[in-house]
Amino acid sequence: MNQAEEILMQKRNGNPIKILIVDDEDAVRDVFSDFCNSSSLFSVTTASSGAEAIELANSTKFDIVTIDLVMPDISGVEAIETIKGSNPHLPMVIITGNATDGLIEQAGRLGGCRVLHKPVGIEQFMRELVELADEKCC
Are residues 129 and 42 in contact, defined by beta-carbon separation less than 8 angstroms? Predict the structure, then answer.
C-alpha cells in the first residue's frame, strides 16, 4: 500500500473501499478483481451482467461501481439508470472498449462519472478508484 492509499484507509477508519466490478467478460472481471484484492484497501464483488449488478447494488452498499456498457442482457446504460435510481450518489466508472460516443454520453448523463477505455492500464484503474474514494469520503 502506498502513502496515498494508507492516508485514504485512515480517513475511512480502516474500512475497505467496497467495489462492484461489472463486466460480461470473465478475463476483464478477473484481472480487475485480482488487482483490487491484492490490496487491503479494497473489498471486491463482481457481476457478469447488468441484471446481476442491479440485484447486488440493491442488496449491498458499495462505494464505487465499475461497469461495462455493452453487455448482452441488460446494457450498462440500463443498469446505470436503474442503480442510480435507488443510489443517486453512488460513483460509477464506465469501462468500455466498443461503445459509441453517443452511448458513453448517455451513460454520463445518467450518472457515469468517469470513463476508461479498454484496454485499461491497471495503474490507471487503481488510481481512478483511489481518487473517487478519496473524493467521496472527504
Answer: yes
Cα angle vertex 116, ends 115, 118, to 5°? 140
Name the fold adopted by 3-137: Rossmann fold (3.40.50)
Q: Provide the residue ranges of all domains of the chain, joining segments of one domain with +.
A: 3-137
Q: Residue 83 half-sphere exposure, CB side, CA atoms within 13 Å?
A: 35
Answer for the pair 59, 51: CB distance below 8 angstroms, yes or no. no
Of the pLDDT bands very low, low, confident and very high (cuts 50, 70, 90), residue 138 is very low
Q: Identify the band that residue 58 occupies on the pLDDT scale cut at 50, 70 and 90.
A: very high
**d(Cα 48, Cα 53) in Å, to the nearest integer?**
8
